[in-house]
Amino acid sequence: MPAGTGVVEAMVEQTFGDRLREARKRAGLTQRELAGAAGLSFSLISKLEQGARQDTRLETARRLAAALGVPTTALLVAEHQPPQDSDPEAPWAPVRATLLQPDAQNSVEGEPPTIAGVTGALNAMGTRLVKEDLAAAAQMLPRLLRDAAALGGPVRARVLLLAGRLMIQTRQYDAAALALDRAEEAGLVQGAATAADMVESRCWLLLRQGRLAEARDLAARWADELEPRLSRATPEDLAAWGVVLGRVAAAASRDAREDEAEQALRLAEAAAALWAGEKPCGDASQTYGRTRTWGPLTVAMQRTEFAVICDRPDAALKVAERITGRKLAPVVGHRNRHLLDVADAQVRTRQYGEAVETLVDVRRAAPPMAPPPAVRAGHHGPHGAAPDTDPADARAGRGGAPAPVER
Question: Can you give the pTM of this predicted structure?
Answer without folding.
Answer: 0.76
